[in-house]
Structure formats: C-alpha cells, structure tokens
Fold this protein.
Amino acid sequence: MGGGWPLIDGWARASLSPSGPRLWQTLNHRSACLSCAWGTGGQNGGFRDELGEPLQRCLKSVEAISAELQPAVPDALFAGRSLAQLQGLDSADCDRLGRLSRPLIHRAETQHYEPISWEEVFALTEAALRRPPERVASYSSGRSSNEAAYLLQLMLRAMGCNNLADCSDLCHAPSTVGLNRVFGSPTSMVSLESLQQADCVVLVGSNAPANHPRLMNELIRLRQRGGSVIVINPVLEVGLLQFGSPAFPIRSMLGGSEIASIVLQPVPGSDTAVFLGIQKAWLESNAIAWDFLKAHAENWEGLIAQLEHTSWEAISNCCGLSRDQLVLTAERIAAAGAVVFAWAMGITHHANGTDNVQAIANTAVLSGNVGRPGAGTMPIRGHSNVQGFGSMGVGVKLREPLRQALEQLLGRSLSPVPGYDTRALIEAADRGRVDTLLCLGGNLYGANPDSRQAGRALGRIDTVIQLATKPNTGHFHGLGARQTLLLPVFNRFETPHRTTVESGNNWVRLNEPGRTHLRGSSLISEVAFLTELAARLLGSDPIDWRSLADPIAVRQLIARTVPGYGAMADIDVSHQEFEVAGRVFDQPRFATASGRARLAPTPLPELRLPDADHFGGIPPGEVGLVLSLITARSYGQHNTVVYKQGDPYRGMPHRHTILINQADLDLSGLQAHQRVTVQGEAGALEQVEVIPGAIRAGAALMFYPEANQLMRAVIDPQSGTPAFKRVPVLVRSAPPAASAG
Ligand SMILES: Nc1nc2c(c(=O)[nH]1)N[C@H]1C(S)=C(S)[C@@H](COP(=O)(O)OP(=O)(O)OC[C@H]3O[C@@H](n4cnc5c(=O)[nH]c(N)nc54)[C@H](O)[C@@H]3O)O[C@H]1N2
Ligand SMILES: Nc1nc2c(c(=O)[nH]1)N[C@H]1C(S)=C(S)[C@@H](COP(=O)(O)OP(=O)(O)OC[C@H]3O[C@@H](n4cnc5c(=O)[nH]c(N)nc54)[C@H](O)[C@@H]3O)O[C@H]1N2
Ligand code: SF4
Ligand SMILES: [Mo]
C-alpha cells in the first residue's frame, strides 16, 4: 500500500522533532505549500485547499519545510572545505549542509567559495549582465513567486534578450504546446470543484501517491462515490493500487483504499498507441460522440481517417497491449458520465511527448469529455509555482496577448531573436556562446540529461549567478569559467512581503509575509534583488524599477498585462484568491480562433531499441540485455534534492538500484540483487543492484538525477523536452557464479 502507516508515522516524527513547534507554526502560516503544484495552503490557512477543505497537507510538504528550517551552513564550512571536497558530496549531503545565509563567490583561480558583500554582488552582477543580449540568459525553477518571475522576464526582455530557459522545458512543455494547439489554452481546463464531479479519472504516467499526494484524496472519494480510476503506467505503482491517506485515517489503518479499477501496463513511450487503440475501439462500436464532435471540433476528419487506416496489429505491436484490453478500457470510459484525463511525466518525457498529449486531448474530445463540469484534460503540474512562471511570460514561447501588452509597457517591439529554452541554452553554452547566466533557483546541472555535457557547458559560461535557499550539486559542479555567485534568498514562508503563486488548477494564491529563523543572516528577497539589478542596468525610463521594489506595484502591472490576471488588481485589498480567467472550460467553447477544439492525427511512434553492439557489445564472459530505462523520482526526494535513500514502495532499498522484471532476468541470465553495469549512450554506472519488481518486461527504472549521467539528450522536437522516460541502456554483468569467484 502507498501512503498509510509509514506516512502517518513520518508526520508524527517530524512534528515531534526539536524543530517541531516551528514546523507547526510554518504549516499554519498562510502561504502555499513549497512542494508540488497541487497548491495546498494560502489564505485559507496552511492546511486547506481552495475549497476550504481541511487536512490537506502531506508529508512532502513537511519534508520541504523541515529542510528550509535547517540552521545556516556554518561560515567555517565553506572556508574549510575545498571545491574538490564539496564536489564529493551527493545530493542529500548538499541539502543537509543547511541554509545559505550570506552571499558567496567562487573565483576561478581559487579552490573555495568565499564571502562577499551585497554591494560587490551588485557591481559584479551588473557588469556581467552588460553584455550583448544574445550572450546573456536566465534559467528558473518554479519555486519563486509570480512577482519575481514577472520581474525576471521583464528585465531580460527590456534588455533585448529572450533567453528565458525554465524548468518547465524539462517538464510539462509538451502539455503546454499540445494543449495550446488543441484548445488554445496551455493549462488544465478542470477546477478542483469540477474534478469532484467526475465519475472516471484516467491517470496516465503519474506517480501521484509520491508526487501529488493530495490528488489521492480526490481519487479515494471518486471510488467512494462509485466512480472508476483507470491507471496507465508501465510500472505497477503500489500507491495507485491501494493508498492510505491521513485525511482518511481510519481507512488508512485498515489497509488503505483501493484506487485503480483498471491498470494498463504499456511499453514505455507508446501512449499514443494506447489512445489510438481506445479511439479505434469507439469508432468500431459507434461510441464516438459524433454530434459533439461535429458541433465543437474541427479537423477531426484526418484523425478518423488515421483510425480507419491504422491496424489493430500495428497498435498492439507498438504498445504491447491486446485489442481486448484496449476495447475493455474504451468501454469503461465510454460508460462513464464525465471523465477527467490527467497525466504527468510518463507522458511528457518522451521524444514524442507532444503527440502523447495531443492523443489524450483527442480522446477527450472524441468522447465529448471536454467543456463541461466533471470532465476535461488535466496536466498535473510539477513545481509549486511552475505554472505561474508560464503565466508571467517566463519561457521562450511568449503568447501573443502578453507580447503585445509587454511591448506597450516598454514602448517598443521585443527582440525578434528567438530565445534559448533549457536544452538550447546548454547547447549554446557548450559552444561558448553564453557569457552570463542568472539562475532563479533550480539545479540546471542536476536536472539536465548527459551530466558530463551539462557540467562542461556551464564551465564555458563566464559568470554564473545562482539565487538559492540551500546548496545543491549544481552549485559545486556547474561552476562558471571566471566566477560563480551563490546568493541566499528568502523562501516563500519567510519573505518579508506578500507574494502570489498559481497552482496547477489555475488557482492564484496569496502568501502572507513571514520571518526567517536565520538570525544575523543576510538574505534578500528575489523581488528586491531583481529590481535593484534592473534599476542599475536599465535606469528608470520607461520603467521605474525602484518603485517595483514594492511588490504591490508589480501586482498592478501583472493585473494590467497578464491575460486572465485582472483580479490581481484588488488582491492586496480584498485578499481574495482567484481562478485565472479563461482557463477552466465548463462550456465547449475553447480559446481557439473558431472556439472549436482543433484535432489532428497523432503518428504511431517508432520504438525499436538498439542492440547490444550499439553500446560496444556484451564482453566475453558476461551476460546482459538492452532495456528501455525510465528515470523517475523515488518516494523520498524532491527533484534533484534527495531526502531519503530508499523507496520502500518499489522495494528499492537504496538509490543505486535498477528495477527489472523477473522475466528479463530469466531471459538474460542476470539475477536478483546482483551488481551490474548500466551502460547508456553518454555514460555508465557500475555496481548497480538489480531489484526484481512490478515493471513491464523490456523496461527498467532508475532514479533521477544519478541516472542523468547515462543518457544523451534526445528531445521532442515539438517542445524541446528530453526523453527521460525512454533511455536505451545495456545492462550487463558476469553471471553470478563467475563474479562470486
Ligand atoms: N515528493 C515529490 N513531489 C514532486 C516532485 C518530487 O520530486 N518529489 N517533483 C515535482 C515535479 S517538478 C514534477 S514534474 C512532478 C512529477 O510527478 P510524476 O510525473 O508523477 O513523477 P515521475 O517520478 O517522473 O513519475 C512518472 C510516472 O510515469 C510512469 N511512466 C514512465 N514512463 C511512462 C510511459 O511511457 N507511459 C506511461 N503511461 N507512464 C510512464 C512512471 O512509471 C512513473 O510512475 O512531481 C512534482 N512533485
Ligand atoms: N532523468 C530525469 N531528469 C529530470 C527529470 C526526470 O524525471 N528524469 N525531471 C525533470 C523535471 S520534471 C524537472 S521540473 C527538473 C527540475 O529541475 P530544477 O527545478 O532545476 O531542480 P530542483 O531540484 O527542483 O531545484 C532545487 C533547488 O532550488 C532551490 N530553491 C528552492 N526553493 C527556492 C526558492 O524559493 N527560491 C530560489 N531562488 N531557489 C529555491 C534550492 O537551492 C534547491 O536546491 O528536472 C528534470 N530532470
Ligand atoms: S499535495 Fe502537493 S501542494 Fe498539497 S501538501 Fe502535498 S506537496 Fe504540498
Ligand atoms: Mo517537473
């Protein structure tokens, strides 16, 4: 069972620990949870969701807060440890060093990070950003506020620079591109209230029990009211079969609630085939919502022709599921009154991620499950404010209404030079085309594929500026050629002024001011840093940057320029959180030019794996096989930050493990718990322990970010997002008898 006792026990332990009282205080602070984009907390108090329902904080939230409540990294630590020593720390060690509390600099000729004053920081940062605009870039991670995000993009665009790489490029960019194409709107069309009216949820490529735990409450309730949950995932995630939630404590103790009604285990990367199969089954049984389609969609004829021409054999060969399984699933969805289609990284992290998203959107439209309460498409977003960053215009694909508003504000056209997204930034840096990089949070080094290339590329940038709350591996491995500045910022619950964030359900939350526990520290608010820097770089015309140091003024600009954010104008007076206008469709009128959903065929992917020779072959005396590797999060980590070593739910006792189906072990001659070499196209990991488990044959699973050394960056050409979930690897070793000798 996922959740349940370990989870409840974790809660108790954390809240009874020495930092417990402060933890409780913080949990009750009126600000949104730091962790995932489900968006618990805010004005209703720390424990409530946007409908005001109680006990909605999960252990992930507690983990994130506890890490922020650590003491400061002692000054002596940076003085006493050389970079070589700091580079020896793993992700968990880095996080446990504590909070950054004063500005630091690493100069290339030295072996240490050393303290520096804020005045020097501003002088160096200003000089580093006074470069040709195409040689300057930013990267951001969706933990900061809307206000900081808005200022970041406005400053760069005012400098004539569009290089606004963002973690969403590595995450839900395929959802943004795909949903924009179909519905003219990039985010979820389902509100929490609407989700509560669904009678079926199709959950694709998501490990929600670990990564969006409070979504599980909604699935438990759905099952309680007689609805069904259809899980599509090559891995049998236990928490999706049974889940215990602290919001339903009695049930948790009794063994949890059943979640999945149907589980499909397709080949990794084949979801387009799964959805084409479901659509074809409807075509054959006349279950397509023809009247709806004709009234509210366009270009559907091409898709219907594709369904007619695509054989069941081609579909089944691609996804590894039988026609019967797909027909049964199609019948179950067709029988439901209102269906929500929800997905996460199992859909987007593929070379055809955007096609996957479009295939889901097509399925929702063909069955009439869009544009009404209880139904729709729902990408489950990652970072707690990643969606807000997109709304604020951080990213390389600026939507037209916002572009026009920004041009009006700046009194001139924005630069026509296309910006670098995250992968383009790494490639450009690797070729020596970037002088200065400003990182608003995140771990660009740890999050990218091909860690060696990522480190090398960052090493070719002159100046790297990192704004962060805690040290991470990127701060030690992703050093600039001349200098790296490591600048400590307030986190969300300690920022001395109000801020806002946007949840994955399009809900804008207002965070109350707070205080830091770090006495004598010299933290800065991201808004203060960005406005001071912009004032030095850009003066006061046409934008008076210093007046924007007051975040109320930033919110006024946001209200004026960001589509759907009009309600922001009153928020400082009304304290009313709100839903971004124009996002939730409860009528079948979409944000496209015609108001109709725009369908298009989705090609079946070509999923052949290379043979062992591609990796240099299996050496004499060894056995092995080629598998398609999923790189995912363990239960106890937040992205590149690891909190716990093991993943009890998948039976993986530590992070240096690979999950493989027993049938593949039998086939290859490898054995459970044997140590193997995992060889990818960009690197290899040695001595990895084999764990037999509930994963589809032909697939394997390892943990990110350690596994990022293995893969080349193969990207979805439509969105730029890397194929993190279908990495070809050779797994090999001497047979156990030989290796034992
Ligand atoms: N505790 C915690 N919460 C988090 C995060 C965290 O690291 N820790 N990260 C946040 C962020 S930024 C994000 S983006 C989200 C990530 O949330 P998820 O997307 O749930 O995270 P992943 O671990 O990447 O898991 C993806 C799931 O997709 C499945 N999968 C892999 N390949 C395929 C495929 O080809 N098809 C299908 N159908 N399924 C597949 C995997 O088996 C796995 O269950 O979580 C957010 N919340
Ligand atoms: N192989 C593989 N690679 C992946 C993925 C995968 O599934 N597999 N997932 C991808 C996905 S979905 C994502 S989103 C990316 C994540 O990529 P990133 O967002 O770049 O990485 P994080 O680990 O979330 O960044 C954490 C750091 O942010 C800083 N931080 C925390 N809070 C704040 C704050 O309030 N302000 C500031 N300025 N800094 C703060 C802390 O210093 C912390 O160390 O990784 C991607 N990479
Ligand atoms: S579900 Fe997400 S937003 Fe809600 S408490 Fe848990 S981590 Fe925070
Ligand atoms: Mo993400």
